[in-house]
Write a structure and sequence with these properties.
Distance between the termini: 52 Å
CATH architecture of the largest domain: 2-Layer Sandwich
Strand order of the largest sheet: 3-2-1-4-5-6
Number of helices: 10
Number of domains: 2
Largest sheet: 6 strands, parallel
Strand content: 25-35%
Structural class: alpha/beta
CATH superfamily of the largest domain: Dihydrodipicolinate Reductase, domain 2
Shape: globular
Length: 327
Amino acid sequence: MADRTFHWAFIGAGTLARQVAKEITASGRHRIVSVYTRTPEKCAEFAAQYGAIAAGSAEEAMTAPGVDGVYIVTPHTSHAQYALQALDLGKSVLCEKPVTTDGAQTREIIAKSREKGVYFAEAMWTWFSPIARQVKSWMDAGEYGDVKSLRFTYHMKSINYAPRVSDPNLAGGALLDIGIYPLTYACRLLGKPDRIECTGRLQGGIDTGEEIRLIYPGTECTISTSITDYRGLEKMTLRGTRAHTTLWLFHMAGSVRLSRFPRRGKRFRADGGMLNEFDLVAEEIRKGLTESLCVPHQATMDVMDMMDECRRQMHLVYPFESGLPGC
């Protein structure tokens, strides 16, 4: 029987890379064949743990024998550089969210993917999840009726999760690190909003949290984020005229309930881990797709535009920028 293991080049070997590597290699369906990071000691340590090649450059990792796909898991500020390099080399790419720090760079990557006819997808964990896809399925089937309100809180004291989160030079802060999850969720369920209202809390060159209102006809949608407190934790509440759902840890949930009164509701359970996205991306690449069915290019661009607009309203400009692109 042919070997069906999917072979990855990892660009990055930090906190998230280690979490992902542990989960996907334990499945037996994925193997890391090469890794590159700018710190040689960290690169060698990671490579030794997974039996991979410790590459001396990103290109060496991407073109190592047997590589089926490149996973980019560096700080946000270097995603564009590595994604464009991989696509130019004809290598399929799964790039951590956010794919870049602004919409203009995101469009450049997607244009390159389309020009080269090479697969590119945003590693938006949530939308490869069976749970999030089930909520979308219920909505599309009219199970909720007319959606009257959609509310998100994502308050996790994660400012010390990794050094990049608090570093303005690496596009740190709440919006790009965790705010992208509820923005993506809302966009996938309701589409791109007519208007956005955003106020943020800025400190030390980053946003530590924000209050966001997405304007949709007939639906009230609010988002509250923070990387400095636990008020409200991580929760989504969706209320429609026929049913409602309350979902904790919505970006990685393992079960969801559609509640109806007085009729009986529905419950759906599935694994909410990161392995879903790697299995599905491997399948899409093997089928010859150049765009993910779970996270289409347009969806990635729409959410990036929404974050650009939030940053514009907050007056959040990173040190490496001269100004924000037009929104």
